[in-house]
Amino acid sequence: MENINVRVRFAPSPTGGLHLGGVRTALFNYLFAKKNNGKFIVRIEDTDQTRFVAGAEAYLLNCLEWCGIVPDESTIHSGNHGPYRQSERKELYQKYAQQLIDEGKAYLAFDTPEELSEMREKFKSAENPSPQYNAALRMQMRNSLSLSDADIKQLLADKTPYVVRIKMPENETVVFTDMIRGKLSFSTALCDDKVLLKADGMPTYHLAVVADDYLMEISHAFRGEEWLPSAPVHILLWKYLFGLDKMPQWAHLPLILKPDGNGKLSKRDGERLGFPVFAMNWTDPATQHTMDGFKERGFLPQAFVNMLAMLGWNDGTDREIFSMDELIEAFSIERIHKSGAKFDYEKAKWFNHQWILRLPTDAYLTEVDEIFNKKGMPVRDIEKLKHACQLVKDRCTSLHDFYDQAFFFFKTPTNIDTASIKEKWTEHKRIFFETFLDKLTTVEWSATAMEALFKTIAADQNIKVGELMLPLRIMLVGSKFGPGVFAIAELLGKEETTKRIQTTLQLLEVI
RNA sequence: GGCCCGUUCGUCUAUCGGCUAGGACAUCUCCCUUUCACGGAGGAAAGACGGGUUCGAUUCCCGUACGGGCUACCA
Q: Is A306 helix (H, G, I), strand (E, B) or coil?
C-alpha cells in the first residue's frame, strides 16, 4: 500500500488557544493515520510574522499531547521534511509562484490596499455586495496583464510592492472527490484571482498548503468545512504545479456550532455561556487575559477526546464510550457526518463523569491532589486521598468536584449546620451520642462494626435510628451530603471522629 | 447578492427502500437510598415543506424554505 501521511495544519494566533474544532480536526487526522498505519504530521505555521507568538507551538503540541494525540512529525519534534516554518521556506514558495507566472497561470498585481478597497466600493451593488478581483475586473486593475511591458518594467525598477495572483480560468469546472462529501464541482468563473504571494514575499495559505503538502508527500488532508469554497483554487494549483495524481485526498470536516442559536462556536460563546472552548488554558499575550481550558476545568483527556469524537462521528451502534485505542479501532471516515453539530456542555460533563467512574483512581489522583493544593488544603496522606476519591467518585462530574465532595476528610468543617438538627435535638439524643462515644473506644474500627454498635445502642435506648443518622452526618461532615456516614467515620479515623462528635455536642449544648 | 455545504426528538445521533422511527444528554414521574448523589424502571419528545420514482419513502431524484460557510496581501 502507498505511504499514508496525514497532516493537520495550525496557524497559532495570539488571540486564541487551541479550540474544540482544532482539536477535533487533529483527532480525526490522527485516528485516520493510526487506523491505516500511516504517519500523523502536525504542521504549525508562522504564517504572519507580526501575529506569531513565541510559545504557541509548544502550547499547541502540549494540548495535543494532553489529549493523547502524539505526532510522528512536527515542527518541534521534527521529522525529515524540514524546515517546517514558513519563514524558512520562503524561497520555495517564490520558486513555485515564478513557475506559475512563467506559464501564464499567475500574474503580478500592483494594486495598493487603497486601490483595492476603492475598487470594491466602486463596483459594490445590491446584487453584488462583494466584488471580486476576477476575470471580469482584472483588466481594469493595475497588474501585469493590464499594463504595458514598459510600465511593468518601470514599476519593478521602482521597487513597487506587488502580489502574485492566480489567473483563474474564465469558465472551467473543477471536480474533485471529498472523502466525506463525495463528488463536488465548482465553476472557476465564480472564484476570484486569489493572492498566492503577499507583498512581503510570504505565501498565503493557498500557495503554502499546496506546496507544503507536495513537498512533504502528504497523502490525506482533513480540514474544516470553511475551506470548501477555496478548494478549487487548491485543486487548480495542484494541477498546474504537481499534477492531480499526486494531490492528497481531501476531507472537509463539519463545523462545531454554538449551543444556542446558530453559527460557528467561538471563544466568546464560551465566556458568555460559561464553558471552556480550549483544550488547555491560554493567555493572550497582548491583554494577559487567560481563558480556562477543559483541562483546567477538571476534565479528563480521555473524556475530552471521547466527547469530541462523538461530535460528528459514531460507529453506527449505540456505543458512546471509547478510549483512544478503541476509537482508532472503530474509526472509519465514511461515518463522519456532513452536517455541523451544536456543542453541548452538559453532555461533555456526562462523558467526564463516565470516565471518572471507569478509570482507576490512580489515573487522576495527581490532578486531584493538585486541586486540593491550589485550594490551600495540602493533602499529606495520599493513600487517604485515594480512599476518599473512591468513596465520592460517583458524585463527581469534574475533577474539581472531588474537592467539594471530599474536603471534609482533610479538614474539620468550620460551618456545622446545627440548624438542621437543633429543633429535634433532645436530652435523649445527647445521652445516646455520649454512650456511642464511650463505646467507640473499644469497637473494631470499621464501618460495619460501627454501624452495628450504633444500632445496638439505639435499640437499647429506644431511639429510632433514623432520628440519629442526620445528626451524626452533620457532626462528621458539617452538612447534608456525602457518602455513607460510617464509611466516612472509618476513613476519618477514631481520633478525628470522636473529636468531631464532641465538638458538635458542645455546640448543641450552647444552643 | 453570488457560490458551496447542510436539514431525524430541545441537543448529539441510529436507520444504507419495509418504521410500532432506536439510543444517549437534558427534562418529568416512580423505585432505591434514614443525607446528597450514583443506580434502576417508566413517560413526554423528531423525519422542514411540496412534487416526483416505487407495491412501499425518513431513506433515491427535483424544486422550495430554512440554517451555515465562503466571498481579505486571515487562516
A: helix
